[in-house]
Amino acid sequence: MTEYTTPVTTAFQLQRQSIEQSQKVFEQGVAFQKNVTDAVVDSLDSQESAQRRGVELAQTAFHSYLDTVEATVPGVAPTVEEVRAAVDEQYEFLLENHAEAFENVETELVEQTDAYDELTEDVLTAMNEQVDLLVEAHEDLEAQSVEAAEQWGTQIEELQDQVEAVQDQVREVQEQAADAVEA
């Protein structure tokens, strides 16, 4: 009987494997997207630090320029100190705004990432439930198909037995007719 059901069972197993592999690929894609988003959030501190160092380096360079002016031009020390104070005030304002901007970006990104994670978790949960229902229905269909193939196989075997019985009867009748003709 397995000669009738093996192809059916194999086809259903291959279909289920395809469904399960597609499900895993989707889950891996979502996990990859989450990892990328987490990496972006994690890199914000490094980006902020690098940009802050750049601003501080520009401030140091400007201080070096002012030091050079003060050292080479006599009598400009009070003016240079005023310029230095004004520049330091502007850099301090810039650095505060810079820190605040990065904090806002990070807060917003974390909130959006959390919302995205919740949404994808809901999607994954719904998909997994649907796939479970699909696989269950698929298994039921397989069982019905195997049963139908077995019944079909049984009917074919019965038909074959009947054909063989008729052939045996025809052979017997032919032999009896041949014997009757000879006698």
Helix % is over 70%
N-to-C series of helices and strands: HH
What is the arithmetic mean of pLDDT? 90
Q: End-to-end distance, in Å?
A: 46 Å
- The count of strands amounts to 0
Q: What is the total number of structural domains?
A: 1
Query: What is the structural class?
Result: mainly alpha
Largest sheet descriptor:
none
Give unreliable regions as ranges. none
- The fraction of residues assigned to DSSP E strands is under 5%
Morphology call: rod-shaped
Computed CA radius of gyration, to the nearest angstrom: 42 Å
Number of helices: 2
Question: Any overview of this molecule?
Answer:
The structure is a single chain. The protein has one domain. Helices cover 97% and strands 0% of the residues. The protein contains two helices and no strands. It is rod-shaped, with a radius of gyration of 42 Å. The model has no long low-confidence stretch (mean pLDDT 90).
